Give the backbone structure.
Amino acid sequence: MRAPSPLRRFATLLALVVTGFPLVQAIAPAPALALENGLARTPPMGFNNWNSTHCRADFTETMIKGIADIFVAKGLKDVGYTYVNIDDCWALPSRNPSGDLVPDPARFPGGIKALADYVHAKGLKFGLYTSAGTKTCNTAGFPGGLGHEQQDANLFASWGVDYLKYDNCNNQGVDAQQRYTAMRDALAKSGRPIVYSICEWGQSKPWTWAAPVGNLWRTTGDISDKWSSMIGKAQANRGLAQYGGPGHWNDPDMLEVGNGGMTAAEYRTHFSLWAMMAAPLLIGSDLRKVSDDDFAILKNADVIALDQDVLGKQATVLGANAGLVVYSKVLANGDRAVALSNETGATATIATTAAATGIGGAPAYTLKDLWSKASRTTTGSISASVPSHATVLYRVSRAGSRYEAESATLSAGGTVDANHAGFSGTGFANGVNAVGSYVEWQVPGPASALTFGYANGTAAARPVDVSVDGVVVATGVPFPATGAWTTWSTVTKAVSLASGQHTVRLTATTADGPANLDYLDVQR
Ligand code: GLA
């Protein structure tokens, strides 16, 4: 076999990752074994009414519309919550003469299709529930999907359902794989893309067989709104990291944040651990009644970013010593998320090291506390005093050397400006708006990654070619819109630069020129 050219080999070393934006192109292809419906590339985010209402009378069309309204009005949609799902007790106890399920006209006077339309009109998606049995779980006995898979899947598709939770009650002892595969095939035949949630409670170890069958599978029994239940689900789910990934997730059940049965520290632990475990984030509280503090937990974008990281790796447990637990999650840009979680009744110091996370050697590391937002630098120790039932959550990155755009070379006409706040140093490079306009830095190797700080206040990406030492190593790298010229973000590029001086140049490929560039961080 011919050896790849040096350029080709170099190019394969470059894995482009954009932080802060969901960038579909950057996602690796799914493992061959996953359910290939193209959905749930990151864990589903949304709402389900069960944890707050069960089948009580307040579970109605009015409630669900109110939740969809709040998703938009309170910014939950903006941080990624998409699915508005309804659970058991939406149907009448009997099918109609044609064998179709019938929405309960008392709860859903407009019917399910109208409700799905309402949700869709808000740019959200709609989810529904039934059971892989003869009846659902509620004792009132609503009809289940066993033996009716295709008819029910077709009906759901005709209503515009985007997500199906398929429960396990009244399964008549029929093999789980057989029951859940039958509905998978029926959903596929319905012709509508529908996220498929297997709710089998972990009874037949679905993580061992369900990756080609569903997009997510419950690993445990039902959660309830108390510490012992929530932490029990985390304990049961955290050893299953190897089985989750894009399109096929472990599901330790829905969130209880906001339902009132746990302390703020316990709810932050709940949300932290679900994000670390790349679990679905389905809000289970009635958002019409949730406090601002609980909203702040559910909307913590730094924590959501761990859950939604495009690599889709579930955290592994680095150590669990008498209730003091260290989790570590590999992130797409090479960072690690580390959770120091105290399950005991007393404050304790919990510690690990950067080396233990496998992040790689560096003279220093930045630890950003994702709840307090404080950052600090460490040479390797990762340690905190953690109150009872609390979790300290860090994003760990290798600290590098920063090269400000003020010291870069700009092509003719480019200026260093300071009129948009939030940059580091004393300014940023404002390149000419033209194809070929460039910003160039001289930086020392070795380097494993280059991170460009930038802002792009327009609506369109401002792509550049990236060259190292005069060789273009990536073409048309998008610097996506950041929403405002004062909103700064980063684009990170993994590289393999030897020691010695290197010239790194970003050259605009469109008439818009480059984004405003703030700095280049060189990671060792
Ligand atoms: C089961 C499921 C729950 C919920 C109820 C509804 O218990 O595990 O999540 O859907 O059924 O009856």
